Amino acid sequence: MTASAELRRRYVEELVGDGLISDPDVVRAFGVVPREEFVGSGFHAGGDRWAGPTDPDFLTMVYRNHPLVTKIVDGVPVSSSSQPSLMAAMIEGLGLRPGTRVLEIGVGTGYNAALMATMGARVTAVDIAPDVVDRARAALARVGLADVVDVRLGDGYLGEPANAPYDGVIVTVGLTGVSPRWLDQLAPGGFVLAPVEHAGNHPVLRVRPGGSGVGEARGLLRAGFMSAAGPLAARYPEAFPEPRRAGEFPEPTVWHPARWRTPLDVFRYHDLWFAVGAWDRRATFAAGPAGGWGGPGGCVLLDEVNGGGAGLLADGSVRAAGPQAGRYAAEVLALRDRWVARGRPEISAWSARLIPAGDPDRPILVPTGWIQC
Ligand SMILES: C[S@@+](CC[C@H](N)C(=O)[O-])C[C@H]1O[C@@H](n2cnc3c(N)ncnc32)[C@H](O)[C@@H]1O
Description:
binds S-adenosylmethionine, 18 strands, Rossmann fold, alpha+beta, nine-stranded mixed sheet, 10 helices
């Protein structure tokens, strides 16, 4: 067995052992496709380091459950191979069968497209960046999938009418709203899986045409994605506030103690965070200094008028800052307790209708009026 095959075997074993992949066809695909072929131009390995195939620990880093950033422009990551467990969850969410027609928005390295094609899906994959498209095509050719995945250069907003209709659209880049073109290009019964901005995160939503709006969205899973270019990332008046970077949220002046002795795990915390965003459009992410705010940051209700606001930590404690700190703290405490009173709903318990927003010439469909279903 080659070093790559052995590391891949252990990587799959760990993903399965940790409960991150369960569908046997997805397990098989992860066991077959060599991820290193898709990151041959290297990736960001922390600090100033760019890791490449000549580095002794290259394969070890490739076969971890980590995203690999493969392109950075002006200090901002713009392309990557997404986190394997997230890819697995989204692919499982698509319910692929041999012959399923899939449109992927954001081909990136091509690894996700290769996994889906290995499962027998007919994949069309679009990316906005010409160099990314060239590299993905070359990688797919190296693993013998050039004829199976149709990689197109273009703005994913437009979808790809040439190969429509699709049974599923999978979006692997963060959006503020869904393109109506994707809904038009779906076959009957088809749906879109897309990470749509919600309270400073990009949880994956399952979107279907119809319902009481242009379409309906349902929460699927928590996720983090880099943001799309173009109309897919348009701002609109009711959009959630942009996430706040470290140092942008002031030092807290008001504290409320923990609600839970054992803090919520990351999944439950994101369930709480999603609910806060479903009830209040002031919710977003704020990174925090290591001191008063605590840890890497999390969910805040932002006071955009006066500055500051209130942050909610995983143990249910609250830190608030700014001239309205007391009021914001009380509001976020009420939202926390409402989540508990409602039976601590998970992300998948929420649904919303979609309405048009953004540029009227290139509208996006944004979820509005989240309700527990
Ligand atoms: C996280 S990467 C995708 C990961 C990829 N699926 C993989 O398996 O490696 C996001 C990609 O979306 C692309 N992108 C950003 N905005 C886009 C847009 N409007 N249309 C199409 N692709 C876009 C970026 O160029 C980048 O390659």
